[in-house]
Amino acid sequence: MKHLSILSLLLALAFCTTIASAQGQQDETIMDKKNIGSLLALYPKPLTVVGAEVGGKVNWLIVGHTGIIGHDRIIVSTSKSHYTNQGIRESKKLSINLVSREMLPKSDYVGSVSGASVDKSQVFAYHWGEDGTPVIDASPLTMECDVVDIFETDGFDNFICSVTNTYAALDVLDNDGKLDYTKLKPVLFEFPTYSYLATGEVIGKCLNLDKQPGMCAKQPMSADGIIRMSKIEVYPQFLDEYMKYAVEVGEISLRTEPGVLTMYAVSEKENPCMVTILETYANREAYKKHIVSEHFQKYKQGTLHMVKSLVLSDQMPLNPANQINNFIQ
Fold this sequence. Notes:
single chain; 7-stranded antiparallel sheet; 4-stranded antiparallel sheet
């Protein structure tokens, strides 16, 4: 019995040590992050200019605090002190105009002065939308909204809105007439430092990353861009293995390198060991970065013994106007 008691005690001590060790690891993991308080940090947000009629005159207000409620409601949150709120409360209507870079100076201005003391009606060229709200002509995307409810918090009016009409510039639509946010590129607002940010590149398709990896935004072709035909002869015994390397480096290069515009490999039908790769690079610097990248070096070093001959032949376009602009503007 004495030995059993000692054994039980040792097991209990070992169990407690394991728990303490695990808790220590958890505490250490938590301490990798610093608690910076109850800071509202859900930024950046799309920058907007809200339009409304106040006292028979159009007024514009820059608004950085907007949100989505479900799939059929938008919230616009503004300080109770804003002059625009009076008109929104009376008409129960407003427009939400997304801000482009070109609009930014004027948008910043309407956020720096009050409509109670300054007439801002002519800052933007506008027209009246079908629902009776002012729509900024220069905005790439405008939503006309009806206010269906007002939720008040300390110091703020939160307008709950339904969208009645959405107007989009033709150059921010894709070939199917749908919004393309890589073309729209709305300006973003970050509150803690009061800064404007640009939208980023597409890095993947939501809920489909394992099936359809995203393509990085591409640079335009510069005057020192490279158009090259790489002509490769592969030893027959290594052909299948070489093809795997070539496919992998091409896919990763296109997906991750902004300066790699084309990486198109083909083989001759009559002689599959003859491989030609059309490579286009936005500029010389993009090419230099490509050849030192990890994925290219893996391809280069892994296929050295597979390649019988290699010819790099730079090309001149006969008609530059016919080139495919496969970059995101």
